[in-house]
Specification:
By secondary structure, the protein is α/β, with parallel strands linked by helices. The protein folds into 2 domains: 125 residues, HAD superfamily/HAD-like (Rossmann fold, 3-Layer(aba) Sandwich); 66 residues. It has 11 helices and 7 strands.
Length: 201
């Protein structure tokens, strides 16, 4: 069936985000950065904030668990913007092109609501979407099917008429299970090639 809707993930599809961008400034060697992000401020911990817990509550909980790391833990959200390395220009160009071709464009992102509001103005293209579902605003998170169903209901999206783009394999698998065509994002060049093969670009 012909596609009329493109759904984009945000982090590391349209914007470059990596906590190591910050912690390479805080710690003097890569091994310490890697240890900290694998054992203290882990992605599992950060995901709890993406799912709706406040950054403040997440920080205080982790400081109690790892008091020796308190200054570095507090930096995670206090210096949040230092984790970003700008837009992924090739992907932003693709977003612009598909929108100009008449496709509806939506964002479906795991992102804490407070942190999203703090960051969105830094990336003006985030205002181009016809609608967004941000996990922290809904207290649900990818790859749960629930957040996809919410997107479908809110914007009257028919899965068979939409394409989903995400850099996480688990999210792509959920999308496909729900009837979406889905592309695992690696690079803007690979995405462009995929969209050309699907006759979207």
């Amino acid at each position: 069936m012909k596609k009329n809707t493109i759904i984009f993930d945000l982090g590391n599809v349209l914007v470059r985000w990596d906590p190591a961008n910050l912690y390479s400034k805080i710690f003097d060697d890569k091994e310490k950065v890697d240890f900290f992000l694998k054992n203290v401020c882990t992605m599992d911990w950060h995901t709890e904030q993406d799912a709706g817990r406040s950054p403040q509550a997440g920080t205080e909980s982790l400081v109690k668990e790892h008091p020796d790391w308190e200054p570095a833990i507090r930096a995670f959200y206090d210096r949040w913007k230092e984790m970003f390395a700008g837009p992924i220009d090739g992907s932003v160009q693709i977003l612009d092109e598909v929108k100009k071709k008449g496709y509806k464009v939506y964002a479906l992102s795991n992102w804490n609501a407070e942190l999203y509001q703090r960051t969105a103005a830094d990336f003006p293209f985030l205002a181009w979407f016809d609608g967004k579902v941000i996990s922290g605003e809904e207290s649900m998170i990818k790859p749960s099917e629930d957040i996809f169903h919410l997107l479908f209901r809110r914007y009257r999206i028919k899965p068979e008429e939409a394409l989903f783009i995400d850099d996480n394999q688990h999210n792509v698998e959920t999308a496909r299970r729900l009837g979406l065509e889905a592309v695992l994002f690696t690079t803007p060049e690979a995405l462009r090639s995929e969209l050309q093969s699907l006759q979207i670009l």
